Amino acid sequence: MKSALSIKNLTCKYDLQTTVLESLSLDVSQGEIVCLLGASGCGKTTLLKAIAGLLPLSSGTMNLNGKLIDNGSSWLPPEQRNIGMIFQDYALFPHLTVEENVAFGLKTLSKKEKSVKVSEMLALVHLTGYEKRYPHQLSGGQQQRVAIARSLAYNPDLLLLDEPFSNIDTQVRHELIGEIRKIFKQQGVTAIFVTHSREEAFAFADKMAVMNHGVIEQYGTASELYFQPSSKFVADFLGGGSYLLAKRISEREFETELGLVEAKAQQDILIDAECELLLRPQHIQISAIEQSSVTVLEQQFMGDHCRYVIDASGSRLIASSAEPLAIGQPVSVKVETQGVLAF
Q: Where in the numbering of this chain does the ABC transporter domain appear (predicted)?
């Protein structure tokens, strides 16, 4: 697949002293939706600003569709990059109607051409009939659709979205994410969006870049990052797992308080060395029994299932069960070894 955005060894500094992004590389293919995922202060928005041209590079190169847009000395201004940007507050003009907002950037088109383009864009985002309304007369989801229609109207080479769903009600967020992803795929849009929500990233992105202190810890599909995290940081950020102390006794076998467990080492771990096994809830199956040294510590109702925390010789592990269990219930433990990783 042809690369749309290519970033090599990018470094950005504030005040020429504070390094925010360091030796960062990223390739985004045409028509791909990429998520920059990470905690506040990790550099997500800084990277978005650098791509948009709002923050100059200290070093490195950035190419868009084969054209150099920044290399630290040669810099293409934001208005010449053909990059669209959507903010979390939508940034609509409150004094303009929906159709006027969408038409705002179409300076080179005739009045008739503008009208046709606006109609096409509003039909695309399912807002036909809302042309004469003002932003304050729309819901948050509708305002976001207008912002997307405005950005897509002038056919940007790349679309940047900063926390695009953070101001949307939870009830409609997942539906809106699905709708917008479908629109982007229909139009072949290349997009990069920022979020701190792994659920949004899983639902919206083709690929995810987990960021930490100005670097990309791991880049790949959601399943690659979830099931094959390259570090404990990535595993912990994507969540849903726990760690069991272990000792490596062979190439595939690890000795634990729950018995021998087969696992794949993600790092160089010597034989007889102590380590930790990453266990997702699906790896630990528990069942009620009359007597056991392992008991249920916590129970969390998740709607379609329950999640349990168990005490296994001092280790707190997240487990799943096919039956309802009470706090304090002694349980038997079965470890499913497929996909267990050692760090």
A: 5-238
Nearest CA among 270, 242, 274, 269 for reference residue 256:
274
pLDDT at residue 161 tops 70: yes
Instruction: Assess whether pLDDT exceeds 90 at residue 247.
Output: yes
The set of residues, in sequence order, having a beta carbon less than 8 Å from that of 81 and lying 6+ positions away, is 52, 53, 64, 69, 157, 158
What residues does 184 pair with on adjacent strands? none
pLDDT digits (tens, 9 = 90+) for 69-104: 998 888 899 989 999 988 777 688 999 999 999 998
Q: Please provide the DSSP assignment of 204-253 as one string.
A: H-SEEEEEETTEEEEEE-HHHHHHS-SSHHHHHHH---EEEEEEE-SSSE
β-strand partners of 287: 332
Query: In this predicted model, what pLDDT tens digit does every residue of 196-212 receive, in sequence order?
Result: 888 899 999 999 999 99
Going by the DSSP 8-state scheme, the letter that residue 79 receives in this structure is: G
239-254 burial, b at 16+ Cβ within 10 Å, e below that, comes to: eebbbbbbebeeeeeb
**Residue 305 CA to its chain's centroid (Å):** 24
State phi, psi for 108 to the nearest 5 degrees. Answer: -90, -5
* Cβ-based burial of 86 (10 A; exposed 0-12, middle 13-18, buried ≥19): buried
- Collapsed DSSP state (helix, strand, coil) of residue 123: helix
Computed on alpha carbons and rounded to an integer, the radius of gyration of the chain in Å comes to 24
How buried is 230 (Cβ within 10 angstroms: 0-12 exposed, 13-18 middle, 19+ buried)? middle
- What is the pTM assigned to this prediction? 0.85
Give the end-to-end CA distance of the chain in Å, rounded to a whole number.
Answer: 33
Which pair of structure tokens corresponds to residue 161? 């979205």
- The residues that bridge with 64 in the sheet, in sequence order, are 5, 67
Q: Write the pLDDT tens digit of every residue in 119-153.
A: 998 998 899 999 999 999 998 888 988 988 998 88
Give yes or no for a contact between 176 and 144, defined as CB atoms under 8 angstroms apart.
yes
- Which stretches does DSSP call E strand in 71-213? 83-86, 158-162, 191-195, 207-212
